[in-house]
Amino acid sequence: MTKIIGISSxxxxxxxxxxxxxxxxxxxxxxIWDDYDEAGFMTHPKDWRSWLAEGSSSNAWSxxxxxxxxxxxxxxxxxxxxxxxxxxxxxxxxxxxxxxxxNT
Length: 104
Hints:
By secondary structure, this protein is of the alpha/beta class. The chain is 34% helix and 23% strand. A three-stranded parallel beta sheet has the order 1-5-2, sandwiched between helices. Strand 3 and strand 4 form a beta hairpin. The chain starts with a strand and ends in a 5-residue tail after the last strand. The mean pLDDT is 75.
């Protein structure tokens, strides 16, 4: 069974560095949330302050490509990440780095 470990922190909090180091140390696969956003595979609220004020519904976010990639890796299938041009192989540990949204 694949264990998914999510890493979240504020901007500049060292998430990417931590995920890359953990992946190397654990010989684990990792996915980076921001890669999906930057490649246009994500829809999300444009006004985060309003989104937070209205209750922060997770339904306002849609990342089907990330969900598809997670499902493939959980089913022990390898994939080629179009986002990063990197091959990812199934592993018992999958690291997911995502950004936090803060009301600042």
